[in-house]
Amino acid sequence: MVHAILKFKYISTIVIVGGGICGLANQLGVASQLRQSAFPLKRWWNILIDEGKHQELILNYETHCLKRRDLLQILADALPPGTIRFGCQVLSVNLDTHTNYPTIQLCNGKSINAKVIIGCDGSRSMVADFLELGPPRMFALSSIRGLSSYSNGHQFPHEAIRMRRGNVVAARLPITDTLVYWFITQPLARSDAKLPHDPELIKRSAIESLDGFPSGFKELIDDCDVDLLFLNHLRYRAPWDLLVRRDQKGTVTVAGDAMHVMGPFLGQGGSASIEDAVVFARNLAQKMSPEDLHQCGKGKQKIIENAIDQYLKERRMRLVLLSTQTYLSGILLETVSKVRSSIINIIMRILFSDRTGHNKYDCRQL
Ligand SMILES: Cc1cc2nc3c(=O)[nH]c(=O)nc-3n(C[C@H](O)[C@H](O)[C@H](O)COP(=O)(O)OP(=O)(O)OC[C@H]3O[C@@H](n4cnc5c(N)ncnc54)[C@H](O)[C@@H]3O)c2cc1C
After folding, report:
1. E strands present in the chain
2. Which residue ranges have their beta carbon within 6 Å of ligand 1?
3. What mean pLDDT is predicted for residues 314-330?
4. Architecture of domain 139-234
5. Regarding predicted confidence, which is higher, 48 or 101?
6. Domain 3-27+79-136+237-360, CATH homologous superfamily name and number
7. pLDDT tens-digit profile of 231-260?
């Protein structure tokens, strides 16, 4: 667990809880470095495997697949000098009854008074609890993801491929000439209520779920590095909650998975977290002068609150649309009823006629 306080040139009192993608994504100029860490995948193949039919849909858009660890390292390297980082968990957030500004309690017994708190502490966010957002909902789906490395190079084309058979989706995305990322999404069996932590069991479950898929996929999983295998029960925030909810109390707000955890079906959760960081920082910088952060008082507090309010307004519809699309994709994977599937497919075709539309969003410059 990481807790970071970012000290910008003149901002010394913004506390960012969480050192994941969202928490670290407060720097610009990282995009060019990100592009150097992986080669571009120009095409997405979507393949539906069904008894008797094999449908292919090719989507032409550029994707970059990165190792999460590399992304976090690049973001951490880009943090400005003066950033204070604590390897310490936040236990709770409270409002100081005298100043009305928030304070956070750390696991080392210390507490920090802050002018602004942004909770980037993921889907089980402590800051979201303070905002009374309630726990995220659960899909009846799990996802296994892993990396397979080939010291002599792999033979896979520089393309992303996603295959679906029944309620199981398997995808493969080469990162470099020697490294391939893959994931499998499948319904959660009743017996899976307690998900296995043993990597060998996870690997076996991944291979078993690939019955009927081309053998190349099973071999890819056979070759994976068991230390880099992850199994998650998939969580989400409902789009209707995001539409009506208030993600702010005074000068405290949330971003990233803490605000909008979504199924990984579009691969947009992390990207949306980086967008949050850009929009949050832009609104803060536009609405406030350096003095506003250094001074107290009701007037200054109001200015910060307005900046956060503007950030949330700017993000709302983008997040509602993304979570609607991921929610419907998740429900589609969960359902066994053909009628229900057809209805969901029709709704998706009406609402998201451009299947790659979510990639064209521009959150604008910082
Ligand atoms: C299977 C799967 C595949 C995915 N694929 C993609 C993809 O292809 N593309 C994409 O863009 N997104 C993808 N995502 C989503 C992406 O991983 C998340 O949206 C992203 O990691 C969110 O970043 P975050 O910083 O908000 O949260 P997190 O990455 O969860 O980071 C939260 C951080 O907060 C810390 N923390 C938590 N509680 C506390 C506390 N109390 N005190 C201090 N620190 C705390 C944690 O230790 C962690 O460092 C995928 C997700 C899953 C599950």
Report:
1. 3-6, 14-17, 40-50, 53-64, 84-86, 90-95, 102-106, 111-113, 116-119, 137-149, 160-165, 168-174, 179-187, 230-236, 248-249, 252-254
2. 1-3, 17-23, 89-90, 120-122, 126, 143, 145, 183, 232, 256-258, 264, 267-271, 273
3. 97
4. 2-Layer Sandwich (3.30)
5. 101
6. FAD/NAD(P)-binding domain (3.50.50.60)
7. 999 999 999 999 999 999 999 999 999 999
